[in-house]
Write a structure and sequence with these properties.
Blueprint: H1 11-25, H2 37-44, H3 48-60, E1 64-67, E2 73-76, H4 81-98, H5 103-124, H6 127-140, H7 147-163, H8 168-189, H9 195-210, H10 214-244
Antiparallel strand pairs: 1-2
Helix pairs in contact: 1-3, 2-3, 4-8, 5-7, 5-8, 5-10, 6-7, 6-9, 7-8, 9-10
Length: 246
Amino acid sequence: MKIDPSSPADLSVQIASAIRDAIVSGQLIVDQRLPSEAELCAQFEVGRTTVREALKRLAAQSLIRTQRGATGGAFVNRISFEEAYSQQITTSTLLLSMNAVSFETACEARYALERACAPLSAARRSADHLATMRAEIHRQGQPGLTDEAFCASDVAFHRALVDGAGNPVMSYQLAGAVEAMQPLMNMITFTARSRERIIALHCQIADALDAQSAPETEAALSELERYTLTLGQDVMAQRAQARAAP
């Protein structure tokens, strides 16, 4: 593990990157104890404060864990897909907000990814996944449900569809699509959408999964995409007219 002292990059960032690369390459394995702070200071020729900052960065990424006591220290952590969800969601949210991704682009990506789950979810979904989806449909139809609660239920419904595929890698990859892009689309379309229309489409999706029909699931998702896209375009057009009005 090496760093470049002449580089303008922060030394703690370089050290964290070097250790992360060693973990990714398998040079450092799960549950292996990292060198002590003193050893890392000597290895990288930096002060203890710099090493501690690097370790904090790694801990924030869940790459290492610390233990106290005589046998304590910093150890390579085993990251679960569930633990990594939040990082994926945060990264996706930042990318969308900072790069001004168009509604059409986000909508296309989000539903294309979800449709990829449809055949697997139709074949593998459990009774619990279906029960979650049915419960969220029931919740969405409750009178007095706030827009925020409806949006949260919408996300939970689609999260169950994705998780029904029984593929943790796919669930992780789609965490950003469902829990970052879905709220973005909800925020744009909530004033124009018909809850009844969305609930009806959700029922079609749940029924198709219950029948283990991948084609019907994909068709219902495609219809939901068309409806969402139309809503978004209508809202954008109305906003443009309002800005252009004298």
